[in-house]
Write a structure and sequence with these properties.
The chain has a three-stranded antiparallel β-sheet. It has a two-stranded antiparallel sheet with strand order 4-5. It is 58% helix and 17% strand. The protein is elongated. The chain is built from three helices and five strands, in the order βααββαββ. With 83 residues, it is α+β, with helices and mostly antiparallel strands. The protein has helices at residues 7-14, 18-27, 43-72, and strands at 4-5, 33-35, 38-42, 74-75, 78-79.
Length: 83
């Protein structure tokens, strides 16, 4: 049976603050259900959210690595191939 977790539990599992969690809920990145005034997420939804953050971080890291490599291939504004 699926466990429903409140925002405090989501914060504890992800290490993120309440404001960021609510922003992600509003953006649709974190799936929740509303029960009364509470926002609740299943364990599965939290795991998917964490996986999304990891994939997003990996994409940024790959992009930065590519950018750093491009910067290193230039010396004083000239391409190393032209040297």
């Amino acid at each position: 049976m699926a466990q429903l977790n409140g925002v405090n539990e989501i914060c504890a599992r992800t290490g993120l603050g309440r404001t960021h969690i609510y922003e992600q809920i509003a953006a649709g990145t974190l799936r929740t259900v509303k029960v009364g005034r509470r926002r609740l997420a299943t364990d599965e939804a939290i795991d998917e959210f964490i996986d999304h953050l990891v994939q997003k971080s990996d994409a940024v890291n790959r992009s930065q690595k590519h950018s750093d490599t491009s910067k290193r291939s230039q010396v004083d504004g000239r391409s190393l191939a032209a040297s």
